[in-house]
Each structure stands twice: as structure tokens, then as C-alpha cells.
Amino acid sequence: MSKTPLTVRGAEKLRDELNRLKSEDRPAVIKAIAEARAHGDLKENAEYHAAREQQGFIEGRIAEIESKLANAQIIDVSTLPANGKVVFGVTVVLADEEDGTEKTYQIVGEDEADIKAGLISVQSPIARALIGKEEGEVVDVQAPGGQRAYEIIEVRYQ
Question: What is 77-156's CATH topology?
């Protein structure tokens, strides 16, 4: 299995979630199961079944996060040589060639992507078009809304 790229911040968020699931959510659901068992007949006990279902979700998410972290290649962009080239993890300021509006995106792993927060997946059309380009270049992006041209104004290694 190949390694999945992940930013330092993305890995930290996954570790925080894993820690919360193991130290808070898992013990709480175990306690809820024990309390529901104390109520008697398990066949007719909706609280017991809901708690068991919740436990299944928590255990599944723990396994998913542990797998992601085990298969992650954590990339610290601040340690890369700042040569103006667009690579995974950098923050890019783009100017739309059509209307001149500026947009700022950070290229992140698939699990970290959040377009509203300016985090775009390395698999997205715009990120794929930007990778390997340098400041000052104009890139054509085949987006779902049609062909767009962006000028790379700035590449930040932060």
C-alpha cells in the first residue's frame, strides 16, 4: 500500500481525534452499555442496542484513524526548500485571469480537504494543475465549471 500524504496539521488533528475517542468517547459508551445491562432484558432494551451501535461506530473510527496514520507520509512544508515551486502542503495565492480576483489555497491530503477553509485536496483538478509550477506562471485548470486560467501570485512554505 502506498503512503498517503498528510500535512503536519492534518496529522495532529487526526491524533487529537484519536486521543478523544480513546480517552473520552470509548469509556463513556462502555459505561452506557453497563448501565443499560443493569436494566435487565437486553432483547427489549433500546438503550443497550443504541449504546452497542455507538460503540461500533467509535471502534470503527478508531481503526480508520489508526490505519490512516500508519499509512501516512507526514510532510512538513516548512522544512522544504522555498524555491517558489508548488508542491504538496504549500499555500498558493492565485489571481483569476478573467476577473482578477485572488484566492488562497493550501494543497493538503484528501482527508484534510475543506474548500470553505481554503484547503484543497492534492487530487483536485486545480491542485493537479498547480503541482510543479512556479510563481508567476499561468495555469489552465479544467474545472467542473469549465476552463479557468489562474496566475500564481505567491507560493508560501508555512
Answer: Chitinase A; domain 3 (3.10.50)
Q: At a CB cut-off of 8 Å and minimum separation 6, what does 102 contact?
A: 93, 94, 95, 96, 153
End-to-end CA distance of the chain: 29
Fold for 4-75, please state it: Helix Hairpins (1.10.287)
Q: How far apart are CA 93 and CA 68, in angstroms?
A: 29
List strand residue ranges (DSSP E) for the chain, in order.
Answer: 4-7, 72-75, 91-96, 102-108, 119-121, 138-143, 146-156
User: How does pLDDT run across 112-147, given as a tens digit for each residue?
Assistant: 899 899 999 999 999 999 999 988 889 998 877 788
For residue 30, give the C-alpha cell.
462502555
pTM given for the model: 0.79
The C-alpha cell at 100 is: 482578477
